[in-house]
Structures are given as structure tokens and as C-alpha cells.
């Protein structure tokens, strides 16, 4: 047993879940996250949206995560700092490393009746132990394919050990929520847990819609009205499939297929990506309405990543009526309907990716049909309905625990 899990004074009993008043009155959620707001990405924005929804419904929420001097955005709800160290080679990320006495006292005073862990780090392991000792149910949300990351850094040999570590972590939780059915199926096949439900993702239709398309903005970047913009959207890190993206673009160039590459995002691999795609337009980081404008101003989104469990960028493009070419992998498989709103391609199949892109580049009617179908599909993703599914899972786990 780890030193941080030594016995301590018993926490006050968690308050029972209220059955009246505000819809979620009596629900007390302790949320542990490895990255709640210090770097902006789809996972932490989803967590902030969840906390905002829970608070509006009358729940009490306390978030435990690393903090930095200049976070990417203000956190939603009460945020308590946990001890953390920078990730080696990726200093913009931090690894939570302990459940310190100060945090334990805060946690005990808050008295949660459910614990939610959002990343399989040391602090989350300690939080799971803390909750299990007190008979408090634990839900874990799965946000990324951590076990696939090593292959992008020439360390694929470590994946089996990493998968085994994740299995141990997830099976100590009472239940998991995954953002897509395809990811849930992967978790079942890998025996991560046997209670897995969906916490999908929503899209803000005020920000992401076809009306955001702005040809003047494109012209300002040097993209003519009649040029087809193949877009990349996301954090510029190798695990997003930047090498596959660049190789497929190389093939388009070698075949003389006219197009323009539009890259939306920032990250540590930007210099590498710029060197690989010297003729691409790099628009940098975009947020809010600017991001909606950038996405709607693409003509096709190319998402070769296999690390996402959902694919927020895919859904955002669909909401803007932009067809998608994506890797046949978790997340995208649950959003892209083959030959209806986009194309799914075997991961790493450069020729097939280039051929799928060629179809959209050369056929305006195909782009319009598949884009319209994607927009219709995006209407199914309402944030409030999606976040209520997590609240329902919390309540179910609390009821199940009370019957033991």
C-alpha cells in the first residue's frame, strides 16, 4: 500500500442524495482531473461544461487538479490545487503526484457522495483508494487513448504494460463513462470494466454552424474563393497524426491535385509541421466565434488521429456542414457515417486518405451533400442531455452503493 494511503481520521458521512428541490440537490461530486483548465483541449472543456451543468442543477462540485499561474481559461466551479510536476519533454502538461494532507482535509470537509476521476494519474489512484475505504462510489471518465501515445514517440514496446496499468486503475472504479460507443467497445474488449455507459460530447450551435463561413477571412490568409481548403483542427502534437496528415498531403501534391492546407491550432510540434508543409496556411490558435469561423471556412476536415475517444473536432466540422475524412478509429467511427457525411479510412493508409480527400476536392456536389448530412447528424448532440447522462450515472451508483 502506498504511503499516501495510510489511515487517517474518518471523513464525515456524505450527505444523502435529496429527492426534492433542485433536480440534483444533495449530489456532492469530487472531481479529480489531470488538466482542468491550464491547457485548453476538448477533454477539459467537456469537464468544465459538465461542472457548469451540475452546478446549475443544484449539485455541489469541488474540482481537484493542478494549477498554474496563467491557465488557458478560468475554471468553472471551485478548484483546489493538487501537487503536480511537469511532464518530461512536454512541460505544458503536468502530472498530479499526490493526495497531500491539505487536499485530504479539504476532501473530507467537502464530504462527497460520489468521486469522479478523469485521468489515471497518481492522485486519481489515491482518490480511488480514499473513496473505496469510505464506501463512496467512483466513476471514471475516459477521455483519450493513453495506451496509444507511446507509438508516436518510438516507444510502442511499452503499450502492453501501459494497458495493464490502465486496466488495474479502471477496474478499481465502480463504473466508466466513455464518449463514444466505439470507445466503450474497446474498453469492454480490453476488460477495463464491465459497467460502461456513454458520456458523449455536444456542440455549441451558436459557435459552430455554416453561417460562420467567411470568405473574406480566408482571403486575408491567402486562400482564394475557388481554392479548396483541406483543414486540420487540433492541438499540434504528434499523437494527432501530423505525420499521416503531411504524408497524405504530399501525395495530393505529387498527383497534381490542387488544394490549400489550412491548419487551425497551436502546440509544440508546430515548427515540425510547418517544415513538413511549407505551403500550408497556419492560422494559429482560435477560440469562440473565431474558431467557429475558422472551421466553417474549411472545405473538408482531415482528421487522421487514432488517439481521440470521441473526436470533438469531427463533430464541430459536421455542425458547420463540412465533410470529414477521418481515421477508422474510436470516436470518429461513432460520428462519421461512411459515404453519407464523410469517409473513414484505415489508420495510416496514406493512399486511401489521399483518394478520399481527392473526391471532396474535385466534387463540389459531393462536398455539399455530405456536409449537409453531417450538419443534420450534429443536431443529435445536445450538451444538457449529454451531461444529464453523467448525473444519472452518479445517482445510479449512489443508489447501488446504498443497497449494499
From TrEMBL:
It holds the Pfam family Glyco_trans_1_4. Residues 41-206 form the Glycosyltransferase subfamily 4-like N-terminal domain. InterPro entries: Glyco_trans_4-like_N, Glycosyltransferase_grp1. It comes from the Bacteria. This is Glycosyltransferase family 1 protein.
